[in-house]
Amino acid sequence: MTVETGMPYAEALDRFEPVLGLETHVELGTRSKMFCGCAAVFGAPPNTNVCPTCLALPGALPVANVMAIESTIRIGLALNCSIAEWCRFARKNYFYPDMPKNYQISQYDEPLCFDGYLDIEVDGKPVRIEIERVHLEEDTGKSTHMGGATGRIHGADYSIVDYNRAGIPLVEIVTKPIPGTDRLAPEVAKAYVTELREVMRSLGVSDVRMEEGSLRCDVNVSLMPRGASEWGTRTETKNVNSLRSVERAVRSEIERQAEVLSGGGRIVQETRHFHEDTGTTTSGRSKEEAQDYRYFPEPDLLPIAPDRAWVAELKAALPELPSAKRQRLKAEWGLSDLDMQAMHNADAIDLVEATVAAGAPAADARKWWMGELARRSNETGVALADLPITPAQIARVTVLVASGALNDKLAREVLEGVLAGEGSPDEVVEKRGLKIVSDDGALSSIIDEVLAANADAAEKVRSGKIAAAGALVGGVMKASRGKADAARARALILEKLGVSE
Ligand SMILES: [Zn+2]
What we know:
With 501 residues, the chain is an alpha+beta fold. The chain has three domains: 9-313, no CATH class; 320-432, no CATH class; 440-496, Arc Repressor Mutant, subunit A (Orthogonal Bundle), CATH 1.10.10. It has helices at 9-15, 66-78, 185-203, 243-262, 308-316, 322-333, 337-345, 349-357, 362-380, 391-402, 408-419, 425-432, 440-453, 455-462, 469-479, 486-496; strands at 16-27, 82-83, 90-93, 103-106, 113-122, 125-138, 142-146, 158-162, 169-175, 215-225, 235-240, 270-275, 280-286, 296-297. The protein has a nine-stranded mixed sheet. A three-stranded antiparallel sheet has the order 4-3-14, with no helix packed on it. Strand 5 and strand 6 (125-138) form a beta hairpin. It is elongated and about 95 Å long. It starts with 8 loop residues before the first helix and ends in a 5-residue tail after the last helix. Its EC number is 6.3.5.-. Heterotrimer of A, B and C subunits. Pfam families: GatB_N (PF02934), GatB_Yqey (PF02637). Keywords: ATP-binding, Ligase, Nucleotide-binding, Protein biosynthesis. One of its GO terms (molecular function) is glutaminyl-tRNA synthase (glutamine-hydrolyzing) activity.
């Protein structure tokens, strides 16, 4: 049964309760692959980072990458997991052209890390996401289907395969089923993947670039009628590759399933594909059961038995995790939950932190990143962190403002110059002549012109209506194209007109 349009979200939620599950794959940033010495890098010419082991030539044997095991244990510890005292790799048997061995070395019933959790916050409320397992496996190669209109295998003339990615260490993080999210299901899914990505980033184990596939998410959704106790059949939407898509995929799958179930249909357990353009999912293949993979322990690799002292050492050396860091910075910067959440959503916390470290007051650093630069980021579609300006440059601008060399308006022009590639803040000030005019000589001649041109206002001030001085200061600002030191100009105007405040 194909359903083109789903039930409106609000109605779907009136009738059904969703249960989520999230499987996230993270490509580790190790220098070499999981079971051979090939470089594990993104973007090399096709089939250049390959060897007999990752091409599965006869007789080649795998050797496990200890850095990958270490990174996986650190991920498990950061996610509050237990670390296995003894576990094995397993062969997961299936055929796919981009997997040269016809099996993937993975972990099955003996994952390296298990039974953890990650706390997130959604809509101001804490939500605990339970982690079922964190296991280690190898990535597959990459197939590209040529000649078709859609880039999919259907309708393609032929396919080509790049094995550079085959054998790159991949960590799979699987949540336990997540019931009780109700209407917030899409937001919970997105918040979880966002937080997970930040944990990975703080551990330094992966570059977690969703657009390059180093963090990929499969979204499981099932629905049950409100008040029911038995969960429905779930679908698995594969490789959703942006945070926004995680949210959209959950929403669209809820709407679709609700429509099917309300029409008396049943949900097929299958994998589905998410389409960025329409925001909907379409049917992929019917989902294999575990027995279809004929798992068995990998005979070419030794079991992993991490030494307890080593695990304790890794635990003690974990960095400050993102949620703890946010709590600390919030207190240090004296911000409200709302302000902190806004910065978190804008991905601005690390940038503000770096700007403060470079010498800016926290309030100023936040003002520029969340104001002028956020606006620029929105206009251009370039992420804040990718704007061509550094935290150190922002810090320099705040110092120039604090010293009175720039006012806010001039500072904005300086930022504009830096963003336009005109050099450092000081170079832009120099080139564009943006320094505030505060020396009395230069101001004095501008003021004389303004007084001559505004005789009426000058007379009012002279006769005691000091409020009229505002218009004269405005005239000086205009004549100096915003560069006059307004306070100094006002003092000089009053002095010239022989009045005091
Ligand atoms: Zn290799």
